[in-house]
Amino acid sequence: MPDTPPSGPQDPRSSEASSRWALPYEWQIGWRYTRAGRGGRRNGFISFISAVSMLGIALGVAALIIVLSVMNGFQKEVRDRMLSVIPHIELQSAVGAALADWRAVAATARAHPEIAGAAPFISVQVLVARGETMRGAVVRGISPAEEATVTALGARLRDGVLAALRPGAWNIVLGTEMARALGVRAGDQVTLVAPGGQVTPAGVVPRLRQFTVAGTFEAGHFEYDSGLALVHLDDAARLFRLEGPSGVQLRVTNPQQARAVAGELLDRLPAGLHVRDWTRTNRQWYDAVQIEKRMMAIILTLIVAVAAFNLVSTLVMTVTDKAADIAILRTLGASPGSVMAIFIVQGALSGIVGTASGVGLGLAVAFNIDIIVPAIERALGVAFLPGSIYLISRMPSEPMAADIVPIALISLGLAFVATLYPSWRASRIRPAEALRHE
Questions:
Q1: Scanning 3, 272, 318, 350, which has the fewest C-beta atoms within 10 Å of its C-beta?
Q2: Which one, of 234, 232, 293, 284, lies nearest residue 82 by Cα?
Q3: What number is the average pLDDT over the span 149-173?
């Protein structure tokens, strides 16, 4: 049996041509129009306008990703500082009443798989006075040992100033801003004016009690540093004439799921309890952040929209320049739909390249903003976040897929929509009229 002759070397251009022509001709022509930069001044100008459109989309997408990432970073910083002081969920009885059996309530709450800690508390608004200076504050009665399982502040200060909160010692721990406003430090005396009063023959006399300042705490959140005071749970119960804690505070494994967990606990706990998660306790801040982020996204999306609709002018100029080519394609049998697909491919490719470049640029800046911003500050000799004014001295950033994916999809959608009208106009060109002017 004769040997089969070895096959000769294949021409690489043949394989390249076969793979290239495997694509529909609409894709091939659309890709050729997208990258065309030669063929005269007019083609070069159209290519330049197309590149500018893609650059505009890229910059708009990158700006949207960077801004939302920085907003997420600031939101996370403030949220973490706030949640270091307050519980994720509060279970409270009716206003002014003690919780009948707080241990049973805490045990029921702990049975939920997302609950990581529980502790009793009493929370009442009072006046804190030092001489003629008075400040409104929220006094929270806590058990130092159990508080450490609920808040980061309690865990951090458990063996520090909170160790001085002992039953009957009448000690108090103030926020740093409140202590500064009252002009007190550790060892000084302050007077708490409790709501309500004692009825005497001379009339209603407010309940007063002197406390010794055991120390201060700093959470990094002005609202709590200036308006929160901590005392022992037993001292708070005696001062406010309660038979026990007024509620139970809980820590959730994932703070972002606190609202969902609170809704599930509402069905498990006895009736008559008020269940509030941290997003409802701080509703004004939470709603303001969400609205601000939403509005900023809308504003920056308009920038992306302007850049995407620059593709309209690019495609219109391309359609005008390629009228003769379109006429020839029509005479060769191309349908109006195929002609429309050519220019949709051209615009869609520009949108894809611009969006991909913008996502890459935005993520590169967002993940390295802690390096880029200090470099800019050193180059310009300025400080964007002075530590003496702001509690946060660095620019935080937290890119989130929940923001980036919609941004990319919206950008691609706008680029696609921008191609529809010019592509439709191209499909309406009549071959005879286009070739008459050639």
A1: 3
A2: 284
A3: 88
